[in-house]
C-alpha cells in the first residue's frame, strides 16, 4: 500500500454496507432522490427569504443561513456516498477524506450553534416583543451569525487537525460511509484516550449546553404562548416554534448519540445510520418542515411560483 509521508494511507477504503450488499441499491436510490430534493428545497427557502420583503426579519436571516448550511452539509457527503454505493470502488483519497472531514464538521458544528441562536430569536420575539427590534437589530444578527460560523470553524479545524495526527498503523479501512471524527479515532491505534476525552468535552459545549438553552427558551416560550389572549397569535407562535423544535430534535438526537459517548463504544452500524440521518434526512426534511408549518413562507413561496409562471 502506497503511503504519504510514511504515516498516512494514500486512500481510504470506506466499507459502508459491504457486509450487507443488498442495502446498497435501496440507499443509492433514496440518496439519488433526496439529494436534489434537499438542494431545491433549501434553494427555494433562500430565494423567497431574499426576494420577499416580508421575510427580511432576523428569523429569516437565520433560516437562510440554516438552508445554506444544510446544502453544504449534505453536499459534503452525499456525492461521495453515491459514488461509492454505485460502483465497486469504495475508496476516497487521503486528501479527499481530509477535505470532507473539515467541511462536514464545520457545517455540523455551525448548525448546532445556529439552532440555539434561532431559539433565542424566538424567545425574544414572543417573550420580549416590545424589545425585539432593539435586541435583534441587523448589527446584532450579523454579529450572532458571524460568531456561530467562527465557532463551527474553530471546533472543526481544532478537532479534525488533532484527529488526523493520530497514527493509523497502516490501517486504511474505515467501517463507515464517510470520513467522520469518531470513526477515525476508533480506527486509530496507540493512545487515543485524550482525543476521546477532548471530543466529549468539546461536544458538551457544542451539543449539550446549546440543547439545554434551547429547551429553557422553549419552556419560557410555552408559558408566554399559553398566556396569549389571541387564539390566532397562539396558533402562529405554536406553528413557528414547533417547526424549529422538530428540526432541533431531528438534528440533536442523532448527533448526541454519536458524539457524547466515547468513539470506542460506538457500535459498528451506528455511525452509518446516524450520518444518513443528520447528513441526509434532516437537510431534506428542514425545507418541508418550515414551509408546511409557516404561513409566511408558504405565502412567499406561492407568490414566487405565480410570478415565475406569469412572467412566462
Structure description:
The protein is mainly alpha-helical. The chain has eleven helices and five strands; from the N terminus they run βββαααβαααβααααα. A hairpin with a 3-residue loop joins strand 1 and strand 2. Helix 1 runs parallel beside helix 10. The protein is globular. The N terminus is likely disordered.
Brief write-up:
The protein has 11 helices and 5 strands.
Protein topology:
Blueprint: E1 3-4, E2 8-9, E3 11-14, H1 24-51, H2 58-75, H3 78-85, E4 91-93, H4 94-127, H5 132-135, H6 138-164, E5 173-174, H7 181-187, H8 193-226, H9 231-259, H10 270-292, H11 295-311
Parallel strand pairs: 3-5
Antiparallel strand pairs: 1-2, 3-4
Fraction of helical residues: over 70%
Mean pLDDT: 85
**Structure summary, number of beta strands:** 5
Structural class computed from helices and strand pairing: mainly alpha
Protein traits:
5 strands, two-stranded antiparallel ribbon, 11 helices, single chain, globular, mainly alpha, 312 residues
